[in-house]
Each structure stands twice: as structure tokens, then as C-alpha cells.
Fold this sequence. Notes:
By secondary structure, the protein is α/β, with parallel strands linked by helices. The chain has one domain. It contains nine helices and twelve strands. It has helices at residues 11-14, 16-25, 62-70, 95-109, 129-143, 159-172, 181-197, 223-230, 272-281, and strands at residues 2-5, 27-30, 39-42, 50-55, 75-80, 114-121, 123-124, 149-154, 176-177, 201-204, 216-217, 250-252. Helix 3 links the parallel strand 4 and strand 5 (75-80). Helix 5 runs parallel beside helix 7 (181-197). The protein is globular and about 50 Å long. The two termini are 31 Å apart. The model has no long low-confidence stretch (mean pLDDT 94).
Amino acid sequence: MIVSASYKTDIPAFYGSWFRNRLAAGFAQVANPYGGRPFTVDLRPDVAEAFVFWTRNAEPFLDTLDLLAGQRRPFMVQMTVTGYPRALERSVIDTDRAVAQIRELARRFGPRSVVWRYDPVLLTELTPPEFHQQRFAALAEALAGSVDEAVLSFATIYRKTGANLKRLEREAGIAWRDPEEGEKRRLLARLAEIARDRGLRPTLCAQPDLLSDAIEPAACIDMRRLSDIAGREIAGREKGNRPGCACAESRDIGAYDTCPHGCLYCYAVGRPETAKRKLRAHDPQGEFLFAPGGAA
Length: 296
């Protein structure tokens, strides 16, 4: 079994102590986000074969990654670095610091252990297509040799995302738009070309309608990459989380509305203030990242 930690929140940045405690206990309890019964995820080495971590700040988690590496428990890190203006990403670490962290992850654990995510691509008056081409090119240049893949996607305007972006436009006067498919394809093709020119494989996360010869589907829970890292086969089956998702089957141990990075395009957080309140209420000794019925 592959454990995802977590596409619902940033465990490495904010909840590393909880993860280490659950690793020592050998299990984590997970609240069903749709009101069903909680379930248990077994974290013992003979069951949890590999881990995929999702983060925007890996530095607080390096000791945990060292621990896993020392135990020969394979993992990969999906690290998002976009370098957007603060109005869109209120609390993420500085871009230079994030780039340095990716380089350090590659140095410590090998370039196959870390994947750079430039997603979602969001068009606003602060981030027009020209912004993305310039910022992506600069980041690709800085990360060349440390990573071998760049994951892209356009922002999907889920309910939480739309509410936050409308609030941004209403309160800060920053306009945004969801472009038509042709414009998305053209920008993705240009970003893919930039990636390939710098030796990176461009992939697209769970947006099959935007695939082309220029860009292939991403498998963010990637059995092949994990098998390369482990030096043995990590078995599993493809079982995406939504249409077009090429990920392998995994069990996620995170919780929605708990990441306080403040990215206004995030699908996993309704209001940043709620996530900050939940972080303050978090119990690192608890079996759940955030127990059902806790502070809302």
C-alpha cells in the first residue's frame, strides 16, 4: 500500500510531529470527509510500502525524511513552487528558499525523490500568460538537474476556489478568469516546451481534455518512480481520484480545511482563517490529524 500525506493538506510543513507520532504508533485514524465512518490506515513497514508527501515547505520535515531513508522506507516528495504574488499565496515560503529546498532534497535523497509542481496555473491581472512563461522559465532554469519532471495543471474552479477568488476580486479588486480551452492548450504547450528545453519532462495533472502531443498525463502517486527509488517493485493498480487521474491507488491520511498557507486558488481550504484556527486546535498526540467533531 502507498500512503499519501497528503493532497488534502501540508503535513510536512505543519504536522510533522503528528506524522512521526503516528509512524511510531504504526497507524493513523482518518476522518471520512463525506460524513462516513472514520477508518484506520496501517503505517507499519510491512503494510505501508511507500509514501508520497505533498508540500510547499519541506524544511521542517527533513529529519522525518532522514528517518525514513535510514529505515529504507521509500518516499517521494511532490513540492509546489509557483512564485505567485503574495495576494494569491499569502503565507508560503519565499521562492528562492523553496528552490533551495528542492535542491537539498535531490542532494540528500536523489533527483528521483522529488517532483516539482507548477500548479495550478491561474490567470489573474497579476498573473497573465506572460507572467507564467517568464516565472516558469526562471524556475525551470533554477531547478534543472535537481528534478526530472514538472507537473502542470490549470486551476479548476471548485466551489471553495471560486468563493475565495470572488472574495479576492471583491475585497482587493484583483480580477481573475478561467480561460477557454484553446488558450489553456497554447499556454501549456509553451510551458511544456520550456520544460523540455531544460531537460524536464512536462506532465499534466488530471486534465485529460487538455492533453496533447506536447504534454503527457501525470501520475502523482507514481509506482514507477517509487519502484526506482526503492530499488524493487512497488506494486499497485491505477486508481485515480477523479476522471483523468493516472495515480496509483493510495490511502490519504490528511484532512481538508487544515492547511494555513493561504493560497486563494486551493481546492482543499474554504477559508484560510478556518485552517489557521484548526492548526491552533491540532493535537500532535492524537490518532487523527483532526478528529471528527473538532473545532470548525
